[in-house]
Amino acid sequence: MRNMKDIKEWLFPVLACLVILACLVIVVGIPLLFIASQAIFPQQCVALVQLNGPIVAGSQSSGLFAEQVLASDEAVALIRQAQEDPNAKAIVLEINSPGGSVVGTREIYDQVKASDKPTVAYFREIAASGGYYIAAGTDYIVANPDTLTGSIGVTMSLQEYSGLFEKLGINYTAITSGEMKDIGSPYRPMTEGERAILKGLIDETFQGFKEIVVENRGEKLDPVEFDRILDGRVLSGRQAYKIGLVDALGNRQDAINAAGEMVGIDGEPNVCEIGAKPSLLQSLLGSSSLRAIGTAIGEALSPSIRSGPSLSY
Prior knowledge:
By secondary structure, the protein is α/β, with parallel strands linked by helices. Helices cover 47% and strands 16% of the residues. The protein has a domain at 42-153 and 221-301: 2-enoyl-CoA Hydratase, Chain A, domain 1 (Alpha-Beta Complex), CATH 3.90.226.10. It has helices at 2-40, 72-84, 102-113, 130-135, 162-168, 192-217, 223-228, 237-243, 252-262, 280-285, 288-301, and strands spanning 45-52, 55-56, 70-71, 88-97, 119-128, 140-143, 148-150, 234-236, 248-249, 270-274.
């Protein structure tokens, strides 16, 4: 009896250790085996790149109250990452942008055009102006029926405070090397000569935008309807489809499936999301109310007067 008691005393701890060891093997081993199998037998996938926010040239500004923007440097890097991923056979760009910087838009567009992999654009809530410009460089465009798109055009917004300064008794004097050097100054009214020069820049950039659309959409466009919407109007996904600005109406999965079909992936494609997941703080600031508060504070702390004119899509 004593021997049986001794056996029970050491058997229970041994069994407990074996159970714990088995649990560790299950918890740790299975994920490791999955990761190893993925490395040894990589699966083909469709890369998903999300392009969200107003387009700016350069990098995303940091800070607690920084507004979420689509910075061209980061967007180009994400698209290049998808292009270089050996497992990604096609790329889907999920666009949710109202447009923005002319230069930033062109930088992202150029990277899209440089892709040697099939590219599909998916329009979510809004893909207007510069957002559409970027999508024009893809091989296929899927739009949500209720998305806002179109808005093909160029803007230049300038502030002018001379009336306010006059009421406050503030005088402004500029000494320049030429009469057009301070064109777009917010401290005095614009002359007709200056307006003509800036309008020429807008028209030139607008012509380039139209050429990009025609070059990429080609015979898919209804030329009469396309000319009619070049007044800068916003279109729904349905309206854009009728004109030939998009290839199909659908959702994100439809765009992913279309990309998979382009490269011969059978069934529903695996998706490899490109880009880092947002932090908890970024997620919190991504909510509409907190983002609005952060944006308002950020704008209040930033200079309110621009140094000169700039073009935007």
